[in-house]
């Protein structure tokens, strides 16, 4: 009976094809960006941020993004936490833009990751530090993938349309296995540096890591992993930072909205 395992030649061929696809996609994005020019790119960014949003979406954005300011001005500690305020605000705007399928979410995501990294370092949350570094690196990669999909599918970057996908059973098993591997692997890593709660801290490494991969690849199921991340993060930041805790409560609400919106987008594509 012939073996069904891929040969070394087949593996090399697959890698070569993927590299060729990546190279072609990168050239497409670069060519389109060069054609648009800096001024047009700024116009496209403005359009992606502000155009095509319904009245409800505007109210939703303004209400949720005002939460950090409300918490700041009702907090009677006598000391303002400006860094926490800006981290919370950029994070909330970022996840709302993700739920709407807007590529500009990566701009806010990069700023949020940089600020959150400083906050996590100050609190000695080493798991959060590694996760935030991963997020920061993934922002330009995610933007490239979203733009690449848009250009390849539509031949232009002007439209803010995105095509959501959903996991099948085999893909679900793969991503759950990856989540378990990251959780256990990072747990042992934290244990080796004598972390007080290694396997508890590594939970969000796993859910964040898989959630970001699914987001980059436009899978609806990212929102399940984001919900898990948010619940554990609320516990982690309890009594540590009012702004960051409030941010994760808003994230949780937005994750439910994101799941609904991406499910609706899937149904439109099927129809």
TrEMBL record:
Gene Ontology CC entries for this record: plasma membrane
Ranges annotated as spanning the membrane: 50-70, 82-99, 106-123, 129-147, 175-193, 223-238
Topological relation to the membrane, as annotated: Multi-pass membrane protein
Domain of life: Bacteria
Principal localisation: membrane
UniProt entry keywords in alphabetical sequence: Cell membrane, Membrane, Transmembrane, Transmembrane helix, Transport
GO molecular function: nicotinamide riboside transmembrane transporter activity
UniProt-listed Pfam families: NMN_transporter
Compartments, record wording: Cell membrane
UniProt family annotation: Belongs to the nicotinamide ribonucleoside (NR) uptake permease (TC 4.B.1) family.
Protein name: Nicotinamide mononucleotide transporter PnuC
């Amino acid at each position: 009976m012939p073996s069904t395992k891929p040969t070394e030649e087949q593996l090399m061929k697959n890698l070569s094809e993927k590299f060729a696809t990546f190279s072609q996609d990168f050239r497409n994005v670069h060519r389109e960006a060069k054609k648009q020019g800096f001024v047009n790119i700024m116009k496209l960014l403005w359009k992606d941020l502000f155009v095509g949003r319904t009245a409800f979406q505007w109210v939703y954005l303004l209400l949720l993004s005002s939460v950090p300011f409300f918490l700041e001005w009702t907090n009677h500690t006598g000391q303002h936490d400006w860094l926490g305020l800006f981290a919370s605000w950029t994070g909330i705007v970022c996840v709302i833009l993700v739920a709407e399928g807007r590529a500009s979410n990566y701009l806010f995501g990069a700023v949020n990751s940089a600020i959150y990294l400083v906050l996590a370092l100050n609190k000695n949350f080493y798991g959060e530090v590694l996760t935030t570094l991963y997020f920061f690196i993934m922002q330009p990669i995610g933007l490239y993938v979203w733009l690449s999909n848009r250009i390849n599918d539509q031949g232009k970057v002007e439209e803010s349309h995105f095509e959501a996908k959903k996991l099948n059973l085999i893909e679900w098993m793969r991503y759950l296995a990856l989540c378990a591997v990251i959780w256990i692997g990072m747990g042992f890593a934290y244990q080796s540096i004598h972390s007080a709660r290694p396997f508890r801290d590594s939970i969000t490494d796993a859910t964040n890591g898989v959630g970001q991969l699914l987001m980059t690849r436009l899978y609806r199921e990212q929102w399940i992993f984001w919900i898990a991340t948010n619940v554990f993060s609320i516990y982690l930041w309890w009594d540590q930072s009012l702004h960051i805790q409030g941010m994760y409560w808003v994230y949780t609400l937005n994750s439910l909205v994101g799941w609904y919106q991406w499910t609706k987008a899937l149904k439109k594509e099927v129809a």
